[in-house]
Amino acid sequence: MEKDNLTKEFERAVFNWYLGGDEASLDPVFNCLREGLANEMEVLVPFAVPDGQALKQTEEDVYILEPGTSVNFMHIDEGDRFVVPVFTSVAEMRKGETIAVTPVQLAVLLDIFQDREECNGLVINPWGKNFLLSKRIQGMLEAYTPQSRIQVLQNGVLNVHVSAIVNAANTSLLGGGGVDGAIHRAAGRNLLEECRKLNGCETGEAKITGAYEIKNADHIIHTVGPVYSGKDEDAKLLASCYFKSLDLAQENGCRSIAFPGISTGVYGYPLDEAASVALEAIAAWLGSHPDAVMNIYLCCFKKDEYESYMRALSSAE
């Protein structure tokens, strides 16, 4: 996974953590942090430019420190302790005061301040959706085992920040009502042009496209749920939508995915049944992919959808 994608996935997980409110779990954030620490994820650290030293500048306000260069990293005072501000991107830094920054591996930065008792940790992206990586959180992170996580959010799929959002499409893939129409409108005309080349999609199958004007995702996975008839085949086809969508996500290097309620709109699938099928299908996929680390968000546009998922989760525990 490229370093830029490591920080992007972390930003997404933190955004969704805020979106989830008081009930949101830190597990998706921890997944991203552990992967970042294991794969040389870099952050941008503000520093005071030493007098008389020429520094290599890669872009405006971003400098590369040569070995042996002595600098003072900036910090934010909190009484008798301090936190070190860091940024995941130049865009995050420019949300507030513009300052000189240098890229440093997150793992290296943590080592630098590990034994500094007066340092309370790092505050990541202090101008935006910030995350305090305190000494206590660092201790929790060390004991954390990365694994796929399921998070239910009472929010629309277009509001979540992920690698891939799932579209509850029709067999033509050319747009429709509900979430399908909303995704096509948000993505713009180029999505329709790509979908025209896919020759439709069978019920229970899935196909992937770009996200175009939807900036909080890289891909759209289009899957066609069954029109509810009350037959056993309905559950098999609905489960296949989740399974095939997760397959495509993994094949395309996605680390996070957001599902709407598939078939629960005009296709008439009862909410409680659909929620149970969705969770069982996702659990089956995870069971067959034990090494996958995927942040999975189940998005509930309406309160009754959210309540159905919560009931299904409770009964599955």
Report on the structure:
- The strands form 4 sheets. A 6-stranded mixed beta sheet has the order 10-15-14-11-13-12, sandwiched between helices. It has a 4-stranded mixed beta sheet with strand order 5-6-8-9. A 3-stranded antiparallel beta sheet has the order 4-1-7.
- The mean pLDDT is 93.
- Helix 1 packs antiparallel against helix 2.
- It contains 10 helices and 15 strands.
- The protein is elongated, with a radius of gyration of 22 Å.
- A hairpin with an 8-residue loop joins strand 12 (206-210) and strand 13.
- The longest helix has 20 residues, at 232-251.
- The protein folds into 2 domains: 3-142, no CATH class; 149-316, Leucine Aminopeptidase, subunit E, domain 1 (3-Layer(aba) Sandwich), CATH 3.40.220.
- With 317 residues, it is of the alpha/beta class.
- 38% of the residues lie in helices and 22% in strands.
Architecture of the largest domain, CATH level 2? 3-Layer(aba) Sandwich
User: How are the strands ordered across the major sheet?
Assistant: 10-15-14-11-13-12
Integer tally of domains: 2
**CATH overall fold name of the largest domain:** Leucine Aminopeptidase, subunit E, domain 1
Give a brief rundown of this model.
With 317 residues, this protein is an alpha/beta fold. Helices cover 38% and strands 22% of the residues. The protein has two domains: 3-142, no CATH class; 149-316, Leucine Aminopeptidase, subunit E, domain 1 (3-Layer(aba) Sandwich).
